[in-house]
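dude i think i finally got it to work??
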Amino acid sequence: MSTPRKHVLAVASGGGHWVQLLRLRPAFDHSDVTYMTTNAAYARDVDESLLTVADANLQEKFRLVRMFIEVLVHVARLRPDVVISTGAAPGFAAIFFGRLFGARTVWIDSIANSEALSVSGRFARRYADVWLTQWDHLAHPDGPEYWGGVL
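look at this
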């Protein structure tokens, strides 16, 4: 009897966050994957399902609330087994709601954050089962951990 395939929700904002998430695709080979991002044009990058949500940050309160609601609706509908994100705000929201719905959660802080952890990454630490940095010098015994980079 074969093991059922896990459903992975892979989430990233646009730009470098998205590029880093795509570099993780080989890790999803034996899973059913749904991608979530802020740019519908990224559908060209993946063969799997792609969901889009509003792009927002802490300075755009209304858009941030809208984005959180959109992520909540998608996570509640999908009920993924695993949520993984390379950042930023939509990734945090997905980690937060994924955890509430029983998913295992993985946060990988962006390679761009070489001097300090991202704001979203600092928020994600409470909800991520696995909390990672891509910089060895930012790792600490109580997290985040360093397992390498996805440059």
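The beta strands are 6-12, 31-37, 49-52, 82-87, 104-108, 130-133, 145-146.
im so relieved honestly
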